[in-house]
């Protein structure tokens, strides 16, 4: 029996899942934690990987391995391959002003709208999370470190390079999925835009990882296992779910992520839709909301109930005009970083725990539905939703989702989709076939309901009537 391993190196932890290469059956697993923070010494990723591998019983009998990891993180290496400074992670916001500056500068260069210029060039409008903005911050605030930087890579690139022995900078490799989140790689053309890299890095032109094919072996581990190209976390999850055109993957975790596999490359100048690539050679346009599962946590805490009771309350009544706009941490979609949450339409008849519970879940879902609309505006077909993430454990969220999202909702059993997607990619690399291997999908349940456009219409009426929005 050939074995493959999928590694998920996330912000919080490292997980290793070893599976049968042919069937996908789980053989064993291990995990280890990562330290908190928005910057980290990459060696801590390697230490956690070693611990997780040991917890999984080692990889000496594994035939192929691949890495899925958090996107956008900036890893700078010197001429000798040593780390120049701690990696800045996707959630580090010190580069917010740098992102704004880059948008303005490209707009001045092109004589048009800067956001659209970035979207046309690479499918991505710079934000604090995007790698190119982090490089601009480094150039402006730590120029000596910028000067020492001979190569720039992403977390999954660095971990894969370490698995292969880190033999030299020319051995660095990445894939389209992760590269598309840098701000200097075009998912549409499949090529780096070194002019934008140099714009971001104040004229510097460091080496970038080679972009490998979706099933290409980029090296071997010390025990002889093939190393697949790896990918970013969202692309790995889509691969694990075997998402196809017409499927929209909605992940309700700390943040909400709405993405879809398609042949259409997004170019949204507003920046609401990021034009990422997937792990199979197609596109993966993506929308991110800041407020997702923690809206459920906050509402349960406010009502003094657990999540089961929150669902029971929400399903006990309609909202009857009550709307909760859940901008509890500002919001990314729409871009309202200073916004706060708000309750609208509160009257005597709807001043009950059930109404508030219902309004909270409807508000969360309306934000995700807006994300699906943004994808549709970029030419994406949405026939059904695959609902995953911790928030999908909410019975009320599952029951109410099809009516608000407007399409059937499929909820697979909870799983480690990033690790499983990496494992499936490793099996694909091992097989050398034109398509990924067919693995049995986890059991799922389908939820359907008549659409309730009135809920979304009411939400849209009050969405911007809150502090920190342009309407106030």
TrEMBL record:
The organism of origin for this protein: Rhodococcus ruber
Entry's family note: Belongs to the FGGY kinase family.
EC numbers for this chain: 2.7.1.17
Annotated active site: 233 (proton acceptor)
Protein name: Xylulose kinase
PROSITE patterns: FGGY_KINASES_1, FGGY_KINASES_2
Keyword tags: ATP-binding, Carbohydrate metabolism, Kinase, Nucleotide-binding, Transferase, Xylose metabolism
Site (Important for activity): 8
Ranges for domain Carbohydrate kinase FGGY C-terminal: 249-429
Function: Catalyzes the phosphorylation of D-xylulose to D-xylulose 5-phosphate.
Keyword Nucleotide-binding applies: yes
Residue ranges occupied by any Carbohydrate kinase FGGY N-terminal domain in the UniProt entry: 4-225
Catalytic activity: D-xylulose + ATP = D-xylulose 5-phosphate + ADP + H(+)
Residue numbers binding substrate: 71-72
GO molecular function, one term: kinase activity
């Amino acid at each position: 029996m050939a074995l493959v391993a999928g590694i998920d190196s996330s912000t919080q932890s490292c997980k290793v899942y070893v599976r049968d290469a042919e069937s996908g059956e789980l053989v064993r697993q291990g995990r280890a934690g990562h330290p908190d923070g928005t910057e980290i010494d990459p060696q801590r990723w390697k230490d956690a990987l070693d611990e997780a591998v040991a917890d999984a019983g080692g990889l000496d009998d594994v035939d192929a391995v691949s890495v899925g990891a958090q996107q956008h993180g900036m890893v700078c290496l010197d001429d000798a391959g040593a780390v120049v400074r701690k990696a800045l992670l996707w959630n580090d916001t010190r580069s917010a002003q740098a992102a704004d500056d880059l948008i303005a500068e490209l707009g001045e260069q092109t004589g048009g709208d800067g956001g659209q210029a970035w979207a046309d060039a690479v499918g991505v409008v710079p934000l604090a999370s995007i790698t190119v903005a982090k490089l601009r911050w480094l150039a402006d605030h730590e120029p000596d470190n910028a000067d020492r930087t001979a190569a720039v890579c992403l977390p999954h690139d660095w971990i894969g390079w370490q698995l292969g022995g880190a033999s030299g900078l020319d051995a660095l490799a990445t894939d389209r999925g992760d590269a598309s989140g840098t701000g200097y790689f075009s998912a549409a053309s499949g090529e780096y835009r070194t002019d934008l890299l140099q714009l971001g890095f104040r004229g510097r032109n460091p080496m970038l990882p080679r972009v490998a094919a979706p099933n290409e072996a980029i090296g071997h581990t010390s025990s002889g296992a093939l190393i697949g190209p790896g990918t970013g976390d969202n692309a790995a999850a889509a691969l694990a779910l075997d998402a196809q055109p017409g499927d929209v993957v909605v992940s309700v975790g700390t943040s909400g992520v709405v993405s879809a596999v398609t042949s259409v490359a997004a170019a949204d100048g507003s920046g609401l839709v990021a034009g990422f690539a997937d792990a199979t050679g197609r596109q993966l346009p993506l929308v991110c909301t800041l407020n997702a599962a923690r809206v459920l946590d906050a509402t349960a805490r406010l009502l003094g109930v657990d999540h089961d009771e929150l669902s029971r309350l929400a399903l006990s009544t309609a909202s009857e005009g009550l709307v909760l706009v859940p901008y509890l941490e500002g919001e990314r979609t729409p871009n309202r970083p200073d916004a706060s949450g708000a309750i609208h339409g509160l009257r005597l008849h709807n001043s009950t725990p059930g109404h508030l519970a219902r309004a909270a879940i409807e508000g969360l879902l309306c934000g995700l539905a807006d994300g699906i609309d943004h994808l549709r505006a970029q030419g994406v077909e949405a026939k059904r939703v695959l609902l995953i993430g911790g928030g999908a454990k909410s019975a009320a969220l599952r029951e109410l989702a099809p009516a608000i999202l407007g399409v059937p909702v499929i909820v697979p059993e909870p799983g480690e989709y990033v690790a499983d997607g990496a494992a499936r990619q490793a099996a694909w690399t091992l097989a050398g076939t034109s398509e990924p291997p067919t693995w049995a999908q986890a059991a799922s349940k389908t939820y359907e309901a008549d659409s309730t456009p009135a809920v979304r219409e009411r939400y849209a009426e009050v969405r911007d009537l809150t502090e920190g929005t342009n309407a106030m």
